[in-house]
Design a protein that fits this description.
The protein is mainly alpha-helical and about 80 residues long. It has one domain. Helices cover about 75% and strands about 0% of the residues. It has 4 helices and no strands. It is globular and about 30 Å long. It starts with 6 loop residues before the first helix and ends with a helix. Bound molecules: zinc ion (ZN). Zinc ion binds next to helix 1 and helix 3.
Length: about 80
C-alpha cells in the first residue's frame, strides 16, 4: 500500500530535520509543506519526527549527541512499527 520513497522523498525527509530546527528559509518551508501535503509517506515521517523531537526535548535538557538521538529514533520506530 505504501509506495517506496522516491529521490524527492528522500530529499524532503532529510530537510525535515532542519525544517523542524527552524533553519530552513521561507521558500524551502513552502516547498516542504507542499511535498508533505502531496505525499502521505513523508507526511507520516514528518509527524513522526515532530513527535520524536518533542519527546526528546521534554526529556533531554542538554543537546544529545547524534548517536543518542539515532538510538532513541530507532527504538521509537520499533515500538510504533514504522
Ligand atoms: Zn514524499
Amino acid at each position: 500500500m505504501m509506495r517506496r520513497h522516491s529521490d524527492s522523498c528522500m530529499r524532503a525527509i532529510s530537510r525535515i530535520y532542519s525544517y523542524l530546527d527552524g533553519e530552513v528559509r521561507a521558500v524551502r518551508r513552502v516547498r516542504i509543506r507542499l511535498h508533505l501535503r502531496l505525499c502521505r509517506g513523508c507526511e507520516r515521517a514528518y509527524e513522526f519526527e515532530q513527535r520524536l523531537l518533542g519527546f526528546v526535548r521534554e526529556r533531554v535538557r542538554v543537546d544529545a549527541p547524534p548517536e543518542v538521538l539515532e538510538r532513541i529514533r530507532r527504538s521509537v520506530r520499533e515500538r510504533t512499527g514504522r
